[in-house]
Design a protein that fits this description.
Layout lengths: L4 E8 L11 H16 L8 E5 L2 H4 L5 H8 L7 E4 L3 H13 L5 E9 L5 H4 L16 H14 L5 H14 L17 E3 L2 E2 L8 E10 H7 L4 E10 L13 H10 L8 E3 L5 H11 L6 E2 L14 H14 L5 E8 L5 E8 L4
Parallel strand pairs: 2-3, 2-4, 9-10, 9-11
Antiparallel strand pairs: 1-7, 1-8, 4-7, 5-6, 8-12, 11-12
Length: 349
């Protein structure tokens, strides 16, 4: 790569079970103001803007255009949108900056899962001919994956409960988390997954600013340089996949350079405790790696923003000197169908 791109600022909302009193724009605007304030930039200073969200969650077509009111679309801006998690919008913005067409980019994402039945909405991601018509929801499919792991001897219910407990305990230090502290494992939602193995349903938003080369050093004392970024996809049909493994995550990590040197931190987008088991294996993460110090998606899972938050949380640890080389992961689709890996590094201290 001829240019070096870094995450120079990150902001997120407080994640809540419901935000009935707020529109998407009202939920997003404080986050946009905060992330710009961290760099001293104004909207007019941003070379490219890219967002991630889902019209299915909002229940109306082209709903993302409404949130441009929070960005300010006049004077005209260079803008794009992906119907995906904001991490994939960051990939587009990163690619744009690599071309040299812009030196700075604003990436934001948001999701309000509370208005409808999220488990029903997410069935629309499935194969329309064989799966979607059966309406298997996201928790039921994750339970199939968890049971496959248990049957293969890769984990058990006690180990899954420990992952949930650790995540909620770590979230006690995260003021934005929806759940934190001791949370009962609870009853079965879909066996073998209990309440504590599943993500909370909630609303939230996040934003990051990217900058290139010397501009990044001007805007941030210790930029989180993106050393590698790649995303891959599994087959759409669940029946042809080994749900106990994630080849796409492993390939994305290889292409992003994650295995070239050890990482000290990993922010994994694992909405279900069983998925952390799969990701740890695919990414070859040992016990020495700090995994999801923010609490991860088990503590707050705003759909369409949770993956971008993983990148932002990893970058923020580099900004404040708590990490030197971090891995961030984002996923979309059932049972870790699509996976993105970012490798972030800080300048030597």
């Amino acid at each position: 790569m001829t240019r070096q791109i870094a995450v120079v600022a990150f902001a997120q909302s407080d994640h809540r079970r419901t935000t009935d009193e707020l529109s998407e724009v009202e939920m997003l605007m404080p986050v946009l103001h905060e992330v710009l304030a961290r760099t001293g930039l104004k909207t007019a200073d941003i070379g490219f803007t890219c967002s991630g969200s889902s019209d299915y969650l909002a229940g109306r077509a082209f709903s993302f255009t409404m949130t441009l009111d929070g960005v300010g679309a006049w004077p005209p801006i260079s803008e794009s949108h992906v119907e995906m998690d904001g991490a994939f919008a960051l990939y587009e913005a990163w690619s744009k900056l690599l071309t040299g067409d812009a030196d700075t980019a604003l990436v934001y994402a948001y999701g309000k899962s509370s208005p409808g039945s999220l488990r029903d909405v997410l069935t629309r991601q499935l194969d329309p001919y064989y799966l979607a018509s059966l309406w298997p929801d996201s928790v039921a499919l994750a339970a199939l994956q968890a049971q496959a792991l248990i049957d293969a001897g890769a984990t058990d219910e006690n180990a899954l409960a420990a992952i949930g407990a650790r995540s909620r305990a770590d979230a006690s230090a995260n003021p934005h988390a929806q759940l934190n502290g001791p949370v009962p494992q609870g009853d079965y939602v879909v066996r073998p997954l209990r309440t504590g193995d599943c993500p909370p349903i909630g609303d939230g938003a996040a934003a990051v600013i990217l900058a290139a080369d010397d501009r990044a050093r001007e805007l941030c004392e210790r930029p989180a340089w993106i050393r590698g970024l790649d995303h891959r996809i599994e087959p759409h049909a669940l029946g042809v996949r080994d749900l106990t493994d994630s080849p796409s995550t492993r390939l994305a990590a290889e292409r992003a350079g994650a295995f070239e040197r050890p990482v000290d931190t990993a922010e994994l987008h694992a909405p279900f405790s069983s998925q952390e088991v799969v990701l740890r294996k695919a990414l070859r993460l040992g016990e020495e790696v700090v995994v999801n110090p923010s609490g991860g998606a088990l503590a707050a899972n705003p759909v369409m923003a949770a993956g971008l938050i993983r990148i932002g949380e990893a970058a923020a640890r580099i900004h404040r000197g708590a990490s030197d080389r971090a891995l961030a992961h984002a996923t979309s689709g059932p049972c870790l169908q699509q996976n993105l890996i970012a490798v972030l590094e800080g300048d030597p201290r």
